Amino acid sequence: MMSTQQIQSDGWLRRSPLDLIEHEHLAQAQLCDSLERIADDLPDNVDRRLCMQVIDALQFQMPVHHRDEELGLFPLIEKRALPDDNIHDILARLALEHATDESFASELLESLEGLREGKKLKNPDMVGYMLRSFFESYRRHIHWENAIVLPLARARLTSEDLEELNRAMVSHRQ
Ligand SMILES: [Fe+2]
Ligand SMILES: [Fe+2]
Question: Which pTM value belongs to this model?
């Protein structure tokens, strides 16, 4: 296990950018668990601190991660994949889900911000439904990437590719 300090420094990126992506998937799985807890605790028992954390993750961390994949990882896999890998459609589908999930997240943000301020929601059932649709589809997304995309990347990307991905990811964080 890496220490928190190592994860925060770019020493983590120097190790392997694929490890960082995998590590972020763990954080995203925790984000989904937090969203599930918020949905379960609606309308009156929601933890406001938890709302603050998920807002930050949805607003800042998720879009950076999506850029890492769409501008960094996916094009490199496309370049190196063999015809039998049949990865093109899967990557296109995952990129489409990024756009859908980001627009869905921006719709959720307003309600989460209200909850963070301790306000009462006008439509808690609808918000609960939206939260559940979001984390259910996001869990599937993470699963596909861990099961198909990252193993293929580990098999096909060269050390130059990993350096290129590393540079892209550093630039997305500046
Ligand atoms: Fe993704
Ligand atoms: Fe991902």
Answer: 0.90
